[in-house]
Amino acid sequence: MTCFVITPVATMQETLRITEIFYSLQGETRTAGLPTVFVRLTGCPLRCQYCDTAYAFSGGEIVTLDSILDQVAAYRPRYVCVTGGEPLAQPNCIPLLTRLCDAGYEVSLETSGALDVSAVDPRVSKVLDLKTPGSAEVQRNRYENIEWLTANDQVKFVICSREDYDWAVSRLIQYDLAARAGEVLFSPSHKQVDARALADWIVADNLPVRLQLQLHKILWNDEPGH
C-alpha cells in the first residue's frame, strides 16, 4: 500500500508571499527615524506612476507566519512595519498583524487605501494612503475606509503637483481628516514637487498637517534593504 503524507489545510493556509524582511530606520510616518523591522509583502493591484517598490509586484517567497514572527524577533525590535506592494491583497496579512501586536510590538500597516481595512486589528496604526489625481490611481480610493480611522491612524497624501495639493486640501476639509486621524501627512512626490514649495503652501494655508520627507531617499537613495 502506498502511503501519502497529507499537509494539514491550516498549515498550508498560514503563509504569506514575502519579498523581504529587513531592519532599518523608518523613513516616513509618525515614527520616522526610529529603528524598525519591515515586512514587505509581495503583490499590489495598483500601479501608481511614482511607485518605488515595483520589485515587490511579483516573485517573493512563501513563508509561514511562524517563520515571519521568528525572523522579526531575531532583530529584537520595538517597531514593526508591514508594507508592500499592498499588504492587504493577501488575506493572511490580517492574522499576521494581530500576531505581531500580540507579541508586544508597535505595529504599523502601510496600505494604499484601495482595500477594506475594517478587519485590521485596532492596535495597528494604519497608514492610509489617499491617492491623488497625479498618482494615476485616484479612482481606486475606497472612501469607506475613512470611517475606520482612529487617533491611532495616519492619512498620507503623496503630492505630485499644485493641483494635487489643492485636491488633497479639499479632501482634508471634506472628510475632516485632522479630527479623524492622529496624523495627516503631506509628502512631496520625489523629483516631481519641490519640498520647500510644498512647505510654503502648507504654511500659507495654515494646514493641520505634517510635512513628510522620506528619510530613506535622503540617506540611502532608495538602496534595497533601507
Automatic annotation (TrEMBL):
Pathway: Purine metabolism; 7-cyano-7-deazaguanine biosynthesis. It holds the Pfam family Radical_SAM. It catalyses: 6-carboxy-5,6,7,8-tetrahydropterin + H(+) = 7-carboxy-7-carbaguanine + NH4(+). Substrate binds at L25, Q26, G27, R40, T83. Residues 31-222 form the Radical SAM core domain. S-adenosyl-L-methionine binds at Y50, C51, D52, G85. SUPFAM superfamilies: Radical SAM enzymes. GO terms for biological process: tRNA queuosine(34) biosynthetic process. The keyword Metal-binding applies. Mg(2+) binds at T53. Its EC number is 4.3.99.3. Its cofactor is S-adenosyl-L-methionine; [4Fe-4S] cluster; Mg(2+). GO terms for molecular function: 4 iron, 4 sulfur cluster binding; carbon-nitrogen lyase activity; magnesium ion binding; S-adenosyl-L-methionine binding. Keywords: 4Fe-4S, Iron, Iron-sulfur, Lyase, Magnesium, Metal-binding, Queuosine biosynthesis, S-adenosyl-L-methionine. Binds 1 S-adenosyl-L-methionine per subunit. Homodimer. Belongs to the radical SAM superfamily. 7-carboxy-7-deazaguanine synthase family. This is 7-carboxy-7-deazaguanine synthase. It comes from Ectopseudomonas guguanensis.
